[in-house]
Write a structure and sequence with these properties.
Blueprint: H1 3-16, H2 27-39, H3 55-58, H4 62-94, H5 99-105, H6 116-162, H7 165-170, H8 173-215, H9 217-264, H10 266-271, H11 275-331, H12 340-382, E1 403-410, E2 421-428, E3 433-437, H13 444-451, E4 459-464, E5 467-468, H14 474-478, E6 481-484, H15 495-500, H16 508-517, H17 521-525, H18 544-558, E7 562-566, H19 574-588, E8 592-596, E9 608-613, E10 616-621, H20 623-629, H21 632-644
Parallel strand pairs: 3-8, 3-9, 6-7, 7-8
Antiparallel strand pairs: 1-2, 1-4, 4-5, 9-10
Helix pairs in contact: 1-9, 1-11, 1-12, 2-8, 4-6, 4-8, 4-12, 6-8, 6-12, 8-9, 8-12, 9-11, 9-12, 16-18, 20-21
Length: 645
């Protein structure tokens, strides 16, 4: 009866296995592996109370929960019946021939005592029942886990897309993604498997103990004394193994990180002749990983010795005592003691109890970890966006694009001591092209942030067509703008999909027209599959200029009343810049256009130029007027144009 010990070791080995991530894996496999490595590093809760917050999600599927409970009960009953079946087969089919056994066996088979076929058919039916009900139990709890975790992930992502940029200043994107992946995966493992196995282990464990007491209360007490002797070393030493495993993971991550950095910059390494240093650093990181693994292996070997020694010695002693009881039974002619079938059945039930308790010790840790994950996920769901629609929002339609700032003051929440905008006031007429210029940090991009209402202002008024922007829903407000950003964020997918992102439902013909207007059509046509070419994650397969032209085509396709350009042509060559500038000039005839530009040559034809410095407007006028003022704009212009001569 060494099975319980083997079960304990297998459980610990499975819990503590650390898989190396092969660099050749796909990004999806690498993500899955990183989630596995991250699980042990996620904090645990002090209790399982936070798991109660999952009940509303689980309660949506009462039918699945009811089916799971029914098949759990049936599967447990079948599993408990297996020991009784073994007892009947052993006593009635093989060993005992006392009168009391013969009378007992006639209850299970018609005819002679040794009609073994009936006993084995009985056992086969029980085995089939246990397999069927166990499979159905697993199916329904797994479906429940997948369904609940899908609902949670959708709820979290829905909430994230509604949160204001201020939230992402407080919480790093990496942490948010970890909650969306690692934490939800931990919850999924608990709902979909751990809880199911735990409930099954409790049910079968209690049932097994009851039956064991009926078979022999003395043997049952002995097993209950042996159990802690096997389990306690597993728990105590297991904590040490987990600590060493985490340390080896960290060392491996450091080694991989160091190798990745040096190989990605191999030309720099070789140019500075630092190959020897990099080899030494990597060698030391790998050696540290080996030392951590060696310590972990030594501790696991010690645990194996203890578990096997205690387990085998204890269980052999218990069954030695049981064998004596069987001899007493046979010597008394069936009047006292245990039968051979009793001792076999007792062994099965003892295995069920010990293995179940061993599993529960690991499950409790998983429950605490999942409880901590639930807390972190529910924190996201409880977040409320700072920017919200008013109770009775106004609606803009047929927008002309008149924009006004009146004494606007603004401070970023993450920089409370820095006044980003101070008493900013200006008016932009419909169809007017206005440029915002000034040194870095002057507040130019903040004008866009405020106008799109990513943040609310401290004081003052911002209006579009005379309507204050906080009287509109954020969605209705932002529908009035098309923006081309300096960092040109694009998405994985085809060129067609990236341009169509500007206006959902646009036809292929409209997309192509927008691409031609942005002078992107020619390079798109040369791609392997034209407009259907997959551009890779964040469109990394394109050059900076190509990415910028796609972003411009996206803004052109949106066809909004107000066009916002943040260094929209900074990554273009001179020829493409002149062509795109003409496209913007055509668009600007029917739209209000705000342009942020550091290259003053791109805004010479603007109707008006607003010069900003340290969050304030310091000058306003045309290019010619501002040059005549001999102020900040003139100094910037002299510097740039002198550099070109």
């Amino acid at each position: 009866m060494w099975w319980p010990c083997t079960k304990q070791i297998a459980t610990v080995r499975a819990d503590l296995m650390v898989d190396n991530i092969d660099e050749s894996r796909s990004s999806g496999a690498a993500l899955a592996a990183s989630i596995e490595l991250d699980k042990d590093k996620r904090g645990k809760a002090r209790s399982v109370k936070p798991l109660r917050q999952l009940l509303p999600f689980i309660g949506r599927y009462k039918g699945i929960v009811f089916a799971f409970i029914i098949f759990l009960i049936l599967a447990a009953a079948m599993q408990l019946s297996i020991g009784l079946a073994v007892k009947v087969i052993t006593d009635c089919g093989f060993v005992d021939d006392t009168k009391s056994i013969a009378d007992y066996c006639t209850k299970f088979a018609v005819g002679e005592q040794n009609q073994m076929g009936s006993y084995f058919k009985f056992a086969i039916l029980i085995g089939i029942g246990a397999a069927v009900f166990g499979a159905l139990r697993f199916y329904f709890i797994s479906i429940l886990g997948q369904r609940v975790i899908a609902d949670i992930r959708k709820a979290v992502y829905d909430k994230l897309t509604r949160l204001s940029p201020e939230f992402f200043e407080r919480v790093h994107t990496g942490e948010v993604l970890s909650r969306l992946t690692t934490d939800t995966t931990l919850i999924e493992s608990v709902i979909g498997s751990s809880v199911s196995f735990a409930i099954r282990s409790i049910a079968t464990g209690i049932g097994s103990l009851v039956i064991m007491f009926f078979i022999s209360w003395k043997l049952t007490l002995l097993v209950m004394c042996i159990g802690p002797a096997i389990i306690l070393p597993t728990v105590i030493i297991g904590k040490r193994i987990r600590t060493l495993s985490r340390r080896s993971q960290d060392n491996l991550a450091n080694a991989s990180s160091r190798a990745g950095e040096s190989l990605s910059a191999i030309q720099t390494v070789q140019a500075f002749t630092r190959e020897d240093k990099e080899r030494r650093d990597f060698s030391q990181a790998v050696e540290n990983t080996y030392i951590a693994h060696r310590k972990r292996i030594a501790v696991r070997s010690l645990m194996t010795l203890i578990i096997f020694g205690l387990g085998m010695t204890g269980m052999v002693g218990v069954f030695w005592y049981g064998a004596q009881e069987v001899q007493n039974f046979q010597a008394s002619g069936g009047d006292a003691g245990m039968t051979s079938g009793d001792i076999f059945a007792f062994g099965i039930y003892a295995f069920s109890v010990v293995s179940g308790v061993g599993f529960l010790t690991g499950t409790w840790t998983e429950l605490l970890r999942a409880s901590g994950a639930t807390e972190r996920v529910m924190e996201l769901l409880s977040e409320e966006p700072n920017i919200a629609a008013p109770t009775d929002p106004k609606t803009l339609s047929n927008t002309k694009g008149a924009i006004a700032f009146s004494n606007v003051n603004f401070i970023y929440p993450s920089r409370p001591t820095e006044q980003t905008l101070e008493n900013v006031s200006f008016v932009i007429k419909p169809g007017e092209t206005v440029a915002l210029v000034g040194p870095s940090g002057a507040g130019k991009s903040t004008i866009f942030q405020v106008l799109l209402r990513f943040y609310d202002i401290e004081s003052g008024r911002v209006t579009i067509d005379g309507v204050e922007i906080d009287a509109l829903s954020p969605q209705n407000l932002r529908q009035q703008f098309a923006i081309v950003q300096q960092n040109t964020p694009l998405f994985s997918g085809s060129a067609m999909e990236n341009i169509r992102y500007g206006r959902e439902g646009a036809s292929d013909e409209d997309v192509i027209i927008a691409a031609k207007a942005a002078f992107a059509h020619e390079f798109i046509e040369k791609l392997p599959e034209g407009y259907q070419t997959d551009l890779g994650e964040s469109a990394v397969t394109l050059s900076g200029g190509q990415r910028q032209r796609l972003a411009i085509a996206r803004a052109i396709l949106r066809d909004a009343p107000v066009l916002l350009l943040d260094e929209a042509t900074s990554a273009l060559d001179a020829e493409s810049e002149r062509a795109v500038q003409k496209a913007f000039e055509e668009m600007s005839k029917t739209k209000t256009t705000l342009v942020i530009a550091h290259r003053l040559a791109t805004i010479l034809s603007a109707d008006r130029i607003i010069v900003m410095d340290q969050g304030r407007i310091v000058e306003t006028g045309t290019h010619t007027e501002l040059l005549a003022n001999k102020g900040l704009y003139a100094r910037l212009a002299d510097l740039q144009f002198d550099l070109k001569t």
